[in-house]
Amino acid sequence: METYHHFINGSFFEPANGEWLDSTDPYLGKPWARIARGNAADADKAVAAASAAFHGEWGAMSATKRGKVMMRLADLVKANAKRLAEIEVRDNGKLLSEMTGQLFYHPEWWRYYAGLADKIEGSVTPIDKPDMMAFTRHEPLGVVAALTAWNSPLLFIAWKCAPALAAGCTVVVKPSEFASVSTLEFAKLTKEAGFPDGVFNVITGLGPEAGAALVDHPDVAKISFTGSDTTGAHIYAQAAKSMKRVSLELGGKSPNIVFEDADLELAAEGVISGIFAASGQTCMAGSRLLVQNSIREEFTQMVIERASKARKGNPMLPETDIGPVTTPPQYQKVLDYIDIAKTEGATCVLGGGPVAPGELPGDQFVEPTIFTNVRPDMRIAQEEVFGPVLSVIGFEDEDDAIRIANDTIYGLAAGVWTESMDRAFRMTSAIKSGTVWVNAYRVISYMMPFGGMKQSGIGRESGIEAIKEYLETKSVWFSYARKK
User: What is the reported pLDDT for 357?
Assistant: First the structure.
């Protein structure tokens, strides 16, 4: 079993306390690697390295040269994409097909932001004061702590670190203790690409220990976090004590809305991929199916038939459709929500429990589950499950669909399925979420901003918007008045 150390200032270091954590393969249910259990001392060391690089070689490097280093990293990720994807599957149990797709797409973030690095421009303001010139410039914030989730570790690194580094910041990454190995392997590539020591650092460990130390560190200027809304709110409160900037990409209870005029075959495929393709373990999962009452029975049956054919098994195999739930606590949480739904009166029409013990290794599989007769006020329709559980809710018309779609504390994503262009525009305007797909679902791009409204988060990742999250605007005034 391989042991992985912290990556600080371009080298690997043992944890200050000499303690380690097991990284478990969710499919097999067995440890396959060890990671360092970091603490405040490790955080101090990593932040000191990042700060030195920010005020030293990286800060002095031209934006064009920074972009060229990032381009080299993109090429290295592409060359190692399959290997990195396999490591992620060992760590989080998601499908190799999905992780491979993510890793081959991952380099595009580095290329995109490498191109933006030397295009950060200020502007001259036609100021209303006589004999004055005024302009703005945009400067990097400083050291960024990137706290990533276990479901797509390297994708989140691309979302957070590529714009941060392009802006001129340096980073300390604290990956989830459940999925850290791919991040440490990725760290080796930053060294190979030619990043100066201290620009990209990784400390591993538990959130309340290593993560909290970064949030509280006085030399960290910005926190970028992906995870639950509960943890996000705690980080937000802690960061506020030292006026740190924050970006929070949090939970969702996203509606997938199907109207009677939709292409039902296409919509059914979209609903299935929206909730079951990643075993529901994605913040943008379409966990609420809102379907117009005139087609509710017909369409629900179409979805049931497709979901019932999903093949559970080894996530490394191409024929597998459903992998394990990543962590034991999350596995139990999903089962608890299934029980809550039954208690509240929802009707389970598919699945509704764990895969029989011993049927698959690891005992962390949940059957694809569909509930009908779900009221919008039920907990199963209001709270994030983060598992392969779909709630079917009927609606009468557009107004009814909008009311139900917006009736949660979340606002991350939504899908609308309709052949009416007028309706599509009305719905995309009325739905309160950061992303709305029309006749599609779970589509992402390095060019398009992603983030949430309401309790789904603060700030945006990807697109031009993201680089602004790592910059401060400075106003500069010049007087050219002459003494009379």
Answer: 86
